[in-house]
Amino acid sequence: MRIRHMIGWTFAGLFVCAGLLLRFALYGYRFTAYLCFAIAAVLAVYQLLGWMAGHNKKAAKLIRLILSTGIGLVLLTAMATGIYVGQAAASKAAPGCDYVIVLGAGVNGTQPSVILRERLEATLTYLQENPETVCVVSGGQGAGEEITEAQCMFEYLTARGIAEERVWMEEKATTTVENLTYSLELIRSQGEKEPEQIGLVSSEFHLFRASRMAKDLGIEAELIPAKTRIGTLRMNYYLREIPAVWYYLVFGG
Questions:
Q1: Selection from 43, 42, 53, 36 nearest residue 7 by Cα
Q2: Is the whole-model pTM more than 0.85?
């Protein structure tokens, strides 16, 4: 029993150390860091329940049952949600969209972040293969950004041969819902007719939630996934996306 407790506390400590490393030594892994802290906390609670059992076995057993049931339900829900996220991530881009909306991501000064560059590369490929498609790049200016995300995307695409008239900028949005709302307003105000096909470009892990938002706005979007090339970063964002999906489903926004 004593050895088991030592092992439990050791693993809790290792998860705390991993969380500190991810949070303060590496960029982009904040969610995984917090997940490590949460796992460490759960392990610590189980160790304390073991100590509590020596004083009040019945209460400790009940708390353990409630905690284990809750964790099991959370894991099952996360697995089911992950399936939907993965299915959207595996979408194949449908050709011939009238418009594609590119969802913004961070800009470092005036240069696209890794995630934004990957979205732009997917967009560039699609526009080259579909020369009639018009692109709406969407994103305002956030902290640490010297230009809007839309301006950054416009410059990236036009510098690589996409005609300026094919790239429309939406520079107000600060959230994904605003990206979609303002982009649709721009398309409807500038387009000569209601678009029949609208494509949605984003990181593969983000497409399920973004497609739900588009559906709530009355649009069945064609999904165009941008692959996240760094495997550990992709795993971090997939994990983060699961609670993000549920936050949107429950609270919206």
A1: 43
A2: yes
